[in-house]
Specification:
eight-stranded antiparallel β-barrel; about 160 residues
Length: about 160
């Protein structure tokens, strides 16, 4: 009986541990509709936005959603940027107090490169239903980038919004 109680207590404690939860899971899109650059080949000149999908297996899938016009309101084609197995790996490290005096989360990213993976820690917060990241990482239309010299300050201009299919 004593072991059964210990097992139940252990299970309850483990299930209440929020460090393994991933509050970023879901699809997010950039707010800005832009013309695809020359490097997009057959998609050059099409209008689009980027979609970043934070998957429960802690990977990020990156897509381009193309549209028929500059208003980006009639979808035409969804294109996956990263091949499976070459994704960015993320881990939500939990809630922290940000330098802006608000609550946010710390996140670590493992980014595949030609040599060996690169890692970085950054921050994010949800502000008026927009998910905003620190200046050290940028999720923008047609571009994900890491800035090792970037600050921990949150960039409230380049936020992602919850994707509406």
């Amino acid at each position: 009986m004593k072991y059964f109680i210990l097992f139940v207590l252990s299970t309850l404690i483990t299930s209440c541990d929020s460090s393994n939860t991933n509050s970023l899971s879901g699809k997010y899109t950039t707010k800005t509709c832009k013309i695809a650059p020359e490097s997009f080949g057959s998609h050059e000149g099409k209008y689009g936005k980027s979609i970043y999908e934070f998957i429960s297996d802690n990977t990020i899938q990156i897509y381009a959603q193309f549209y028929t016009g500059a208003a980006c309101n009639e979808e035409t084609e969804l294109v996956l940027f990263e091949a499976r197995g070459n994704e960015i790996i993320f881990n939500d490290l939990g809630e922290v107090d940000l330098q802006e005096g608000i609550k946010g989360n710390k996140i670590s990213l493992l980014i595949p490169t030609q040599d060996e993976p690169s890692s970085i820690e950054a921050f994010y917060t949800v502000n008026n239903s927009e998910t905003c990241f620190s200046n050290s990482i940028r999720f923008t239309t047609y571009s994900f980038s890491v800035h090792q010299s970037g600050t921990d300050a949150i960039d409230f201009e380049e936020c992602l919004i919850q994707h509406q299919p």
